[in-house]
Specification:
heterodimer, A: alpha/beta, Rossmann fold, 9 helices, globular, B: alpha/beta, 6-stranded parallel sheet, 18% strand
């Protein structure tokens, strides 16, 4: 499934949610669906899930969607257990799995084609796990997935589609953080 | 704990630390005024506290100095580069109660203050009941100025 096309599908389902995204998925998402409730400043690799948890706990009436990477999740596997233990119902975790560190030279992740993120999430205690391997299925089932109480994980088996520009200056900028802060207060 | 409540801390995010276990973490875990988030690794807590601050929800990351050292890159990015109010309370495991940390026989204890100074992270050493009176104001200042702050706990709270 092409990542950009999957994100186009997700765009149709995102209204007032907080979206925490990382790396190429973030850059693609910012181009496909630019909005101030995109949380772009995760700072250190692997930390998106933890930022998402903090946002979900501090904003229990808002839905939080985390668009994570496979390499990123591997760097913070303990967060799966932390999230399952905290059990925020407003937390939906998408793992965009392409098997490589795409923005760092496309080197393979450890366990490429072997590691089972869905099984790890299930074992950690996530309420539900769904694996999406093709766009048609994702398109037809994403509504149902988003209705499930979190923490819920969608493992997205993806390949790169159109890759949008990598604007690192923006995601690390004070402007991006302030835009999110103000949007959160208004929402 | 009273100082934390006066500073409007709602969430305690923690990996257990032997210095603060009996005096803080166990009582906090039983106090309904605090919400405790048990994390597997301390850098998760840096991100959780930073993210919570966007709607001014106040949190404290309670951990041992080993966890602080393990979290330095997250603190660098989220606390310093992003200028978010990440407040941390760090127990110095292995510090002799009668010595100041710079004179400790433990390398892991001696380096904490120099590391914080090198990273330009403001901190306060909490050794005596007299020091505790500063905690509320330090947390208040951290949130008012959106800056990171560390409390170094040199001996077990009573």
């Amino acid at each position: 499934m092409r990542r950009d096309l999957a994100l186009e599908v997700l765009k149709q389902h995102v209204t007032n949610e907080i979206v925490v995204a990382v790396y190429q998925t973030l850059f693609d998402w910012m181009a496909i669906n630019p909005r101030d409730l995109n949380y772009v400043a995760t700072g250190a690799m692997g930390q998106a899930s933890s930022h998402g948890l903090g946002l979900a706990l501090a904003n229990p009436k808002k839905e939080v969607l985390v668009f994570d990477g496979d390499g990123s999740v591997l760097m913070n596997l303990g967060s799966l257990v932390t999230i399952a233990n905290a059990a925020p119902e407003n937390f939906h975790h998408f793992i965009f799995e392409n098997g490589v560190y795409e923005v760092n030279g496309a080197h393979p992740i450890p366990g490429q084609n072997k590691v089972d993120f869905g099984a790890m999430a299930k074992a950690a205690g996530y309420r539900s796990v769904t694996v999406f391997s093709n766009l048609e299925t994702f398109e037809s089932e994403v509504t149902e997935f988003l209705k499930q109480p979190g923490p819920a994980m969608a493992v997205m088996k993806i390949e790169a589609g159109e890759s949008y520009p990598r604007d690192y200056n923006y995601i690390h900028s004070a402007l991006a953080r302030e835009q999110f802060r103000q949007a959160l207060q208004k929402s | 704990m009273d100082a934390l409540k006066k500073a409007h801390i709602q969430f305690i995010v923690s990996v257990p630390d032997i210095v603060t276990s009996d005096g803080l973490l166990w009582p906090i875990s039983k106090d309904p005024e605090f919400k405790l988030v048990r994390v597997c690794k301390e850098d998760e807590g840096v991100s959780i506290c930073g993210a919570m601050s966007y709607n001014m929800t106040r949190a404290l990351l309670l951990m041992q100095q080993t966890g602080l050292m393990d979290s330095l890159n997250a603190i660098r990015a989220i606390g310093i580069d992003y200028q978010l109010p990440v407040c941390m309370m760090v127990g110095l495991q292995g510090k002799e109660p009668h010595k100041i940390s710079s004179e400790s026989s433990s390398y892991g204890v001696r380096i904490i203050q120099p590391v914080l100074e090198a990273m330009q992270i403001p901190f306060r050493v909490i050794e005596s009941p007299e020091d505790v009176k500063h905690i509320t104001a330090d947390i208040e200042a951290a949130y008012q100025t959106s800056s990171t702050f560390v409390f170094i706990i040199g001996r077990a709270p009573v």
